[in-house]
Hints:
Distance between the termini: 61 Å
Largest sheet: 3 strands, antiparallel
Helix content: 55-70%
Mean pLDDT: 95
Number of strands: 3
Shape: globular
Radius of gyration: 21 Å
Low-confidence stretches: none
Number of helices: 11
Amino acid sequence: MGKWKTKIAGQVDGKLIIRGKEFTKLVEENGFVEAIYLLLTGKLPDEKQTKMLNAIFVATLEHGMGPPSTTVSRIVASTGNSVNTAVAAGITSMGEYHGGAGEECARLFQIALKSEENPIVAAKTLVEDIVKVGKRMPGYGHAIYDVDPRTQTLLKIAQNLGFKGKFVDLAQEVEKQLQIKTGKKLPLNIDGILAALMLELGLDWRLGRGLFIIGRTPGLVAHVLEEQVEEKPYRRLSEDEIEYVGEKE
């Protein structure tokens, strides 16, 4: 079996090198978000890229006890499991409909603008294709919001930092076209704006779920600790929350 090869990190002359940078110098000179961007892309971000990525992570950091990943983490913590087990359980609950939509949305955005450079035309074609096959457009719609406040904040920051480019234009136009084609208000949500902005930052669309995991994990850790410290062990549904609908005796 040959050697395992990596361009990410390794020992060179007794020093740990990360993407061509000496680890100790990174610790001294760079912030966490800069180091994450370096790991993911192989180069350090400029000041504006750092601010935009930092805003994305903060926007995905926490969204209360309702999301499945938080609920799952707390339930697993309540049964006496370790922090790493409970947080891992929450992360594994992230899927196509929770935390995963941004990745597929970014893939569709990238394909749409490869086929048609005009964001308005690309949005019309993309929505028509989605509606025609009866699929759900990832990155749009929300159980609580008619307008996702996280999206609006990120849009404002993107405008100020110069990241309101063709992918953001496409994302906003898709929202308009979805309402025209379906008659429903399906707001651009955190997954959708994350998809557009990661492409504006030059990140690979396949990092979509990874970025959400990086952003949300601190929130899960906080919830697990609170569950362990503040709550009694063993969470379960009460009988009035359960309805048996099977065969009667």
